Amino acid sequence: MQMITTPPFIDEAARHYGVVAADLTPMVGGHVTYVCSFRRDGKDCVLRITPPNEEIDLPGMRAILPWIHFLAAGGASVAAPVPSQNGNLIEAFEQAGQTYIAVAFERAPGVRGEELTFDQWNDALFARLGQTAGKMHALAKAYIPPNTDLKRPEWNAAANCFHPPEQFPPSEAIIAAKQVRLFEYVQTLPKDRDSYGMIHADLHGGNFFVDVDTNTITVFDFDDCAYGWYVMDIAMGVFDALVLYPGADCEAFAARFLRSYLQGYCTENAISAFWLSQLPHFLKLLEIGVYAEVRTYHDPADTGSWVGKFMANRKYRIEHNVPYVDLDFVNMLR
After folding, report:
1. Mind listing the pLDDT tens digit for each residue in 101-160?
2. Which of 204, 244, 242 lies closest to 326, judged by CA?
3. Is residue 182 within 8 Å of residue 306, measured between CB atoms?
4. CA 246 to CA 266: how far, in whole Å?
5. What is the Cα Rg of the chain in Å?
6. Are 36 and 96 a contacting pair, CB within 8 Å?
7. How far apart are the first and last CA of the chain?
8. Largest Cα–Cα distance in the chain?
9. Residues in a beta bridge with 160
């Protein structure tokens, strides 16, 4: 009988959290991350182990975990960090001369938002999503990093959907110029306490769980969190909802989504008409950013996936200033 061996770094990571490798159940992880579930103290938990790779960023993770802990302590609906046996929110350990990072979180109920069919979504869930974002933004106004040397970057100093690392070739010069003008414009916007602070920066349906039985939403994966305008997270919500929406009546659906989202958002955090008027700019910034990321691997024959749906006429729409969605954003709260 062939014996199944466990990589030593998994044994070591498990030990830090008071379990053994046999107690871990593999889950779907990222392209460089091992993700497992386990139980401790009667709670379902998730252990994430990042092996050595070019993306590993120990200082970055040491800035992210206190932020998530702060949100959870403040009552935000996020997957709360689970301390290690030593009371640490993050464990870094050596195996064969290389550094591994292990972090654990309480397991959120439900399924990823992107896995829900649209007949499972309703106005109450849209409002709950907005309320969840609003609570995080309200708490962000009071957040002070415990260590100023471990501070998250500004949104435009890191790679994210608003600020992708991909560069446009000469054939995309028109789009590249529009991206530069948008960067220049948004940098003129106010950065006061009520509008600018720590944001998730990647708040789409792949990064929150939905429990339809309890009408709860739990946010996770804060790897892209950065300092930015709170309206950026709202823009991501609208953007993602339309990417996934299967119908043809996009404007009507977007209006329904955003109206419910903002009703929930405003129960936790206020937003002015001025910031609602900025949504088209951030939606266009997202549109260009996502286009930059997917254009290099998009298969023109693919029309069924979200990438295929998004890329249909996308180059034309961006070059000819077609709004991502044409709504009266300012009057959404009326």
Report:
1. 999 999 999 999 999 998 899 999 999 999 999 999 999 999 999 988 889 999 999 999
2. 242
3. no
4. 28
5. 21
6. no
7. 69
8. 69
9. none
- State the pairing for strand pair 34-40/43-50: antiparallel
**How far apart, in whole angstroms, are the C-alpha atoms of residue 214 and residue 225?**
27
- Written as six digits, the tokens of 18 are 């008071």
Return d(Cα 209, Cα 108) in angstroms, integer.
Answer: 7
Q: Which two tokens stand for residue 50?
A: 């990042």
- Asked if 216 and 135 touch (Cβ cutoff 8 Å), the reply is no
Work out whether the CA dihedral 259, 248, 112, 30 comes out positive or negative. Answer: negative
Strands (E), 90-240: 91-95, 98-106, 111-112, 196-199, 208-211, 216-219, 226-229
Residue 160 token pair = 């994210």
Take residue 282 and report the two structure tokens written for it: 């951030």
Distances (CA, A) of 319 to 91, 177, 284, 306: 47, 10, 11, 21
Structure tokens at 322: 């077609």
Among residues 71, 108, 69, 107, which one has the least CA distance to residue 88?
Answer: 69
DSSP 85-144: TTS-S-EEEEETTEEEEEEEEEPPSSEEGGGS-TTT--HHHHHHHHHHHHHHHHHHTT--
Residues 100-113 have pLDDT tens digits of: 999 999 999 999 99
How many residues would you count in the chain? 334
Give the number of other Cβ atoms within 10 Å of residue 33's Cβ. 14
